[in-house]
Amino acid sequence: MDLEDLDSPPLDGAGKVWLKAMTRPQLLAWAQTTLGARPMQAEKIWAGLHRHLAATAMALPGLDADLRTRLDASARIDALALNDVHTASDGTRKLALRTDDGAVIEAVLIPGVFGDQARATLCISSQVGCAMGCRFCLTAKMGLLRHLSAAEIVEQVILARRLFPETWISNVVFMGMGEPLHNLDAVIAATRILCDDHGIGLSARRVTVSTSGLIPAIQRYVAESPARLAVSINATTDEIRDQIMPVNRKYPLGALIAALRALPLRRNDRVTLEYVLLADLNDTPADVERLAALVAGLPCKLNLIPFNPHPGSEFRRPAPERVLAFKAALQAHHLNTSIRATRGDERMAACGQLGRVPGPEDARPGRPSPPRSRRPPGLVLV
Question: What is the pTM of this model?
Fold first, then answer.
């Protein structure tokens, strides 16, 4: 569906329209055309969803009973249900959220933005599982079960705001389960909805979408989304990146960096380059020199992520002093470099720890097991 096309509005499994999957222009047009709502009533529907965080049509403020009834009959407001909340000792909360078809996705609320405990970053998911196969990530072991709709993506933010009204969610990062740019239409729509000043109203500079490096999708994303871009590099040679990120076999490191250099970035914008540090694999002095040469002249900031272990993992986190030395060596090359603090790892809520490996209990009689991996169209990994 074209992002501004209303010929085929987004539908749930029962044929109801996903209200939270529509951008504001889409929803206003749909409400007036399909429901016969007046322009001001259509605006109240949008505000009720994204400002007042109404959970049902009957709870939408400022609408007459007849319009609420018609809306309830034809459209869907809720997109996810809360399954559980796991709280770590550092205040990080992992939200387990259930979809209509019984899948469970995870979002993580991380308090303490810029040292302010009243502000938080919400890390959200874009897929149930992931097809990319990154060996350092637990979600990859699930394979890809399906994409999330834009409504299911946006709902993660709305549910978190509803659950924790005392916390100002000022930042949202698409760094949970899934490869966001493999689900490009839904993710672009979701970023537009989240950044709409008439609704949730997040600053576009506070919404970041992370990708493993799907080059054609990156180019479209930058052209169509208001949000910022982060790219997982994680290696300085194709040999190592091929091993830990199979996507590199389709979109090699050199081609990826060249594509980033060619992006029409807004003035003063920088691409965030994420680098998961794996002990004795990609954290050597030689890696520092190669990384500095690779990104020289690219408007970027480097975010180092010490590996977070999970069951069955073959990698180790480098010692803290080695992480600090890696950062210092990059800064000596005048590169803007930070270290992502590990948060929530005791509750499997840190970067790379979301999801679970499907077990025998997931199989149902007469129901085939879900595919372990579905690759993006045209992405053939050899």
Answer: 0.92
